[in-house]
Amino acid sequence: MRAIVVTDRAAGTAGMTLTERPEPDAAMLASLEGANYGDVVVEVHASGFTGNELDWPSTWIDRLGRDRTPSIPGHEVAGVVTALSYGTAGLSVGQRVFGLTDWTRDGTLAEYVVVEARNLAPLPGDVDFTVSASVAMPGLTASQGLFEHGHLSAGQSVLVHGAAGAVGSMATQLAREVGAYVLGTGRAVHRQAALDFGAQEFVDLENDALEDVGGVDLVFDVFGGDFGKRSAGLVRAGGMLVTVAGPPGARPADGLAVDFVVVSDRAQLSEIVRRVRDRRLRTNIGNVATLEDAVAAFNPTERINGKTIIRIRQ
Ligand SMILES: NC(=O)c1ccc[n+]([C@@H]2O[C@H](COP(=O)([O-])OP(=O)(O)OC[C@H]3O[C@@H](n4cnc5c(N)ncnc54)[C@H](OP(=O)(O)O)[C@@H]3O)[C@@H](O)[C@H]2O)c1
Q1: Which of 106, 133, 140, 263 is the 20 to 30 A CA-CA neighbour of 270?
Q2: Is 225 helix (H, G, I), strand (E, B) or coil?
Q3: Which atom of ligand 1 sits closest to the CA of residue 169?
Q4: pLDDT greater than 80 at residue 27
Q5: Residue nearest to atom 8 of ligand 1 (CA)
């Protein structure tokens, strides 16, 4: 099968190449070294890649710390199940699915991928593969950050960093829907996009002082670093800083700081796709490219806001 692979950590996205890799199939699922109990093969129709995936250790090593190059990046998927391993529950061959794949195994920038069935949800026939691949990771991340970790509820205020980006735009919409007051941040050029996704105020991080924001109940941080640290000071007593950017550099004086890594969840994926169908959740796609054009798409000459989705099959 055709797949994008990476072999050189230092090369970043410039080191991505389109090549041939062995195609996973039912026989591979049946072999012990091929896959685990509960795995399925998915014929990939649309694949998503997170911008800094090539910095994640899991792109380069497996769970036992062994080199796993050449590795196939991309962990967001929408496609069709073509084979099931023994013990797979809840999915069948020919079923449309979407979800997240394991970080430490080959990913979805390929014609086929092996995925644990529990990491996939059924995809209704009227929801496009491209759309569903684009909401899996950002939708789950935003939902888990706001509600599972941040315990956000109606009437509370939340500062969403990067509110025009993939994760931030989902967090902005979900927080508004629950009745929270949303302050979005980003670059000056992101103002209108953040407001369009539902932010009631926008903090231009290039020109405004973050410290002027005042107290909020929750900060949803996608940046870490200096912005993450300074954001801890904005959290009201009893509030939280929730970050997806690694261990927080500072903790709110009278509140909690939590960092987490998104996990796939069938029920949450189904809820996300329900919102998409009801037009309560708008996807944030910046670019759609083919597998042949994927390497160029991940090495753009100009900034693209929103997710880049690779359409593997038309
Ligand atoms: N822990 C987890 O489970 C998890 C899950 C998903 C994502 N993440 C992480 O979350 C981060 C965001 O992911 P994403 O997919 O939402 O990325 P994204 O689509 O690029 O969104 C980030 C947004 O923030 C903006 N931004 C970046 N640096 C900025 C700065 N210095 N000042 C103002 N605005 C800035 C970006 O604008 P520009 O494009 O103009 O820079 C973009 O609009 C990534 O680091 C990703 O790895 C973590």
Answers
A1: 106
A2: helix
A3: 16
A4: no
A5: 244
Read off φ and ψ for residue 253, nearest 5 degrees. -60, -40
SS3 147: helix
Task: Name the residue among 119, 7, 51 with its Cα closest to residue 300.
Answer: 51
**302 residue type, one letter:** E
**pLDDT over 80 at 35, yes or no:** no
Residues 114-131 pLDDT 10s: 999 999 999 999 999 999
pLDDT tens-place string over residues 188-235: 999 999 999 999 999 999 999 999 998 999 999 999 999 999 999 999
Provide the token pair at 53: 């995936």
> Residue 160 has what pLDDT?
98
Look at the alpha carbons of 230, 221, 254, 153 in this order and tell me if their dihedral is positive or negative. positive
Helix H or strand E encompassing 280: none
Contact criterion met (CB below 8 Å) for 166 and 306: yes
Mean pLDDT, the chain, rounded, equals 95
Q: Is the CB of 176 under 6 A from ligand 1?
A: no
Q: Which residue has the tokens 């009631």?
A: 200
What is the spatial distance between Cα 221 and Cα 258, in angstroms, rounded to a whole number?
10
Closest approach atom of ligand 1 to CA 167: 16
**From the CA of 26, how far away is ligand 1's center (Å)?**
37
Name the residue with tokens 């005042």: 214
Instruction: Give whole-number Cα distances, 178 to 195, 219, 267, 301, in Å.
Output: 17, 16, 18, 38
The answer to whether 228 and 208 are in contact (CB under 8 A) is no
Single-letter amino acid code for the residue at 21? R
Segment (H or E) for 232: helix 225-232
